[in-house]
Amino acid sequence: MPSTDPSLIRTGRSLHAVGLGVMVLLAVVPYVAAGLPMSSQNAFLRRRIEKSTRLLELEPNVRVRNEQLNRELAVHEQRRREVLERIPEAADEGLFLAQLSELAAKSDLKLQNYRPGPPEKKSTYSQVDIALDADGTYEQLCQFLAGLESLPRYCRLAGLTVSRPEGEASTLKVSLTLRIFFGSTPDQPV
């Protein structure tokens, strides 16, 4: 016959409650210890899968853009090599004056006062600014400026001043500053 002693009943119920608590802990602890981190890792992996899927969807566009940029790079590299081939080792302003004089004659532009400045040493090349004056029509000036690009010697227009003398209808007074380069390191762009 079961005992009716109240202290024994309370002790029995307490032991049952402790046993139930231990069973709940044994069920919850593995879930907390393993389940929550796994759940967090699953969420992380799902986000990564979604991101990777979006990237894979972009892949054809990325490939096309990459090919386009590679073609542009090839064009720029070719242009860079062509420019470097037009840059001599020495300043040789006299040869450049001969090339300018020939271009001016083709353009019917009259060159005057050819004044080379001092050479400037840069990290991968050297340069000289050359000032000169010219007289001619607007068309002659445009033809001369367009012809600078086709000179065997690479040069840049660094300054240009154009004025019209009083009483002259078609003749322009032009002051130009051209920059020539020399002694470039072949692996470095100008």
Could you please describe the fold and organization of this structure?
The chain has 190 residues and is α+β, with helices and mostly antiparallel strands. It folds into 2 domains: 1-85; 93-182, 2-Layer Sandwich (Alpha-Beta Plaits). It has 3 helices and 5 strands. The protein has helices at 6-85, 93-107, 138-147, and strands at 110-116, 120-121, 126-136, 155-163, 172-182. Strands 1, 2, 3, 4 and 5 form a 5-stranded antiparallel beta sheet that branches. Strand 4 (155-163) and strand 5 (172-182) form a beta hairpin.
Short recap of the structure:
With 190 residues, the chain is α+β, with helices and mostly antiparallel strands. Helices cover 55% and strands 21% of the residues.
Which short descriptors sum up this protein?
alpha+beta, 2 domains, 5 strands, 5-stranded antiparallel beta sheet, Alpha-Beta Plaits, rod-shaped
Would you list the SSEs in sequence order as H and E? HHEEEHEE
What is the architecture of the largest domain at the second tier of CATH?
2-Layer Sandwich
Question: Percent helix among the residues?
Answer: 55-70%
Give the number of helices: 3
The largest β sheet comes out as: 5 strands, antiparallel
